[in-house]
Description:
Layout: H1 5-15, H2 24-42, H3 70-75
Amino acid sequence: xxxNKKTLAYLAGLSRLSVEADKEEKLIxxxxxxxxxxxxxxxxxTEKAGDEPVVKNNLxxxxxxxxxxxxxxxxxxxxxxxxxxxxxx
Length: 89
């Protein structure tokens, strides 16, 4: 795809941008590089790519187990009513 001043003016109108005259050539050059990059991507073969990635769950399965009730937690409170737990560090 060739990008010229007419194409640039059309794209600027669609995007509601105003392009200064001194920056037109740089913008045309940049847009041509972008289009060339997409053309390079179209040349890549994707036939060997898999249909979908394999996703494996690395987490343990959830299993129900006995937990503390409010009554048992309240038995372990200190004199201020806070629940004391062992330090982790």
